[in-house]
Amino acid sequence: MAAEPVHAPDRSESLAALLGGRRGAVDATLPAVAFGLGWVLWGLAQPGEPAIVAGSVAALVVGAAVAAWRWRRGATPRAVVLGLAAVAVGALIAIRTGRASDFFLLQLLSNAASAAAWAVSILFRWPLLGVVVGGLLGQKFRWRRDPALLRAYRWASWVWVGQYLVRVAVFAPLWLADRALALTVARVALAWPLVAACLAVSWWVFKRTLPADHPGIRHPQV
What are the b/e assignments for 141-150, b being 16+ CB within 10 Å? Predict the structure, then answer.
């Protein structure tokens, strides 16, 4: 029977390289920026006019442009449609309620739901970071049969829970106070900068948790 190949430990990998994230985070931010700018500028130019409608139209136009750009760059149809649908739902909620801050309500709820989903996945020993990375690497669920990898994914996934909780902690009071412009600024500040920090910290936690002689993220020791 042939011996299993021995892999040298690989520490040059990174979650940022595997997951990317910058383009998606920036793309998702642009419609929110368009909404905030459209709402503020229309309100200054036409006091008393429906500034929320103007902001919503600006967000939808930018959202459609981003969707077309992502389509041309090879994004999946599902991802393109879901991204544009999120913008449309946010705009409809804001128009319906008459509160500009409600454009960001879907973002607040999705981050709260994401924090809960990631925490539950860790507690049930199916950390979502492992599910995502294992799928990208074509490992399916072999990483779960490697106790060291499973433990590293679980600890690193807590950093992602923290990422979503940070957004909830910032967005919730601003939404309650109906601070639409502040929510726009927070949406930008907590997009790619926070994603980049999460990728870096979770990768550091992953490497610190994984034994020094482990061959790395690409080689589950089943």
Answer: eebbebeebb
- Listed in sequence order, the DSSP H helices in the chain are 15-19, 22-45, 51-72, 77-97, 105-123, 128-136, 147-176, 180-189, 192-209
Half-sphere exposure of 109 (CA within 13 A, CB side): 9
Of the candidates 76, 41, 82, 36, the residue with the CA atom closest to the CA atom of residue 59: 36
Displacement of CA 88 from its chain's centroid (Å): 18
Chain centre to alpha carbon of residue 178: 23
Per-residue pLDDT tens digits for 153-192: 999 999 999 999 999 999 999 999 999 999 999 999 999 8
Query: 24 by DSSP, 3-state: which?
Result: helix
How buried is 2 (Cβ within 10 angstroms: 0-12 exposed, 13-18 middle, 19+ buried)? exposed
Residue 30 identity: L
Q: How many CB atoms lie within 10 A of CB 131?
A: 17
User: CA separation (Å) from 201 to 126, 150, 152, 176, 211?
Assistant: 20, 17, 13, 30, 17
DSSP state letter for 12: S
In terms of Cα–Cα distance, which of 189, 125, 194, 110 is closest to 157?
125
User: What pLDDT, in 10s, does the model give residues 13-32?
Assistant: 678 777 866 666 778 899 99
How far apart are the C-alpha atoms of 45 and 39, rounded to whole Å?
10
Q: Residues with Cβ < 8 Å from 112, sequence gap 6 or more?
A: 164, 168
Structural domain boundaries of the chain? 15-209
